[in-house]
Design brief:
With 340 residues, the protein is α+β, with helices and mostly antiparallel strands. It has two domains: 98 residues, Phosphorylase Kinase, domain 1; 225 residues, Alpha-Beta Complex (Aminoglycoside 3'-phosphotransferase, Chain: A, domain 2), CATH 3.90.1200.10. 41% of the residues lie in helices and 12% in strands. The chain contains eleven helices and nine strands. The strands form three sheets. A five-stranded antiparallel sheet has the order 1-2-3-5-4, sandwiched between helices. Strands 6-9 form a two-stranded antiparallel sheet. Strands 7-8 form a two-stranded antiparallel ribbon. The protein is globular and about 60 Å long. It starts with 5 loop residues before the first helix and ends with a helix. The model has no long low-confidence stretch (mean pLDDT 92).
Amino acid sequence: MQGIDVDKVSAWLVENIGGARAPFVFDLIAGGRSNLTFRVTDANGTHYVLRRPPLGHVLATAHDMAREYKIIAAVGRTNVPVPPALGVCTDDSVNGAPFYVMGFVNGVVLDSADKAALLDPSLRETASHHLIDVMADLHAVDVDAVGLGDLARRDGYIERQLKRWKSQWENSKTRELAAIDEVARRLSERVPVQQGTVIAHGDYRFGNCLTDVKTGRIAAVLDWELCTLGDPLADLGYLGVYWADPSNPQFRANDPTPAGGFPTYRSLVDRYAARTGRDVSGIDYYVAFSCWRLAVISEGVYARYLHGAMGKQEGVDLAALKLGPEGLAERALESVRRLS
């Protein structure tokens, strides 16, 4: 099993996870393109989830398992649904890299139009509204009260993000894309005023949540590796990248909304505004910023696959992965040019 030292990890699980019983079966959960995620089944049939960084070289600022675990443990003390945080291992001698373990939560990751078929059309608006309500609840958390006040700087979120992702682009790019540089310049010239400091998930969408398809409720929010303290509208703008309105033919393959029956993105923005009282009139800037940032992230994913850092995963279309950053960069450029 690539990415798992079965004997050492099994011994660690028995010693550190209450009730866990050897032997364990490790299965790579399909779909992960960043950190590697495994379903772990113990001798009692109990399921756990183990997360570890990609194999091989990764950027120094990425894939901090202890940090991600800290966030999940903290958010788990609020009304925001997350998997139970069970334990973290920072001793590289156990598995060659840090990892953490969380409880297994039942639900469906709605990351395609085909997956949306598992959610009855009568529940698609309900699920969309709960997705926004959970975001609003996350943004209402007192960062100091849950012990995340030192997670990052509180001000200058967009400036920090622009600096970070420009640096990541330089460190991970496999080619030159002029649109990336132009969008970065235009975004830097018109940074909006930050509306408070919240826990910003950084990758918030249906595809990073487990949805209970019987009730249309979000069962757990996943994938917190990009989380930081920052501007709440960044999460809201990012969701717009993964939301296909009838009037907007642009959508991503891992977006379930083209299946139909989902409310418009604008209605979700308005719902968020009503729940939080925040001014959402500048949301288009954040959608453009999110397209640009996602283009940089996608280039990093493509580079890791090229260099073999993601292990042996069947069915990976490298040509499609290469096109992803290009399309996102062009969409970001179109969006930023429309800003008044």
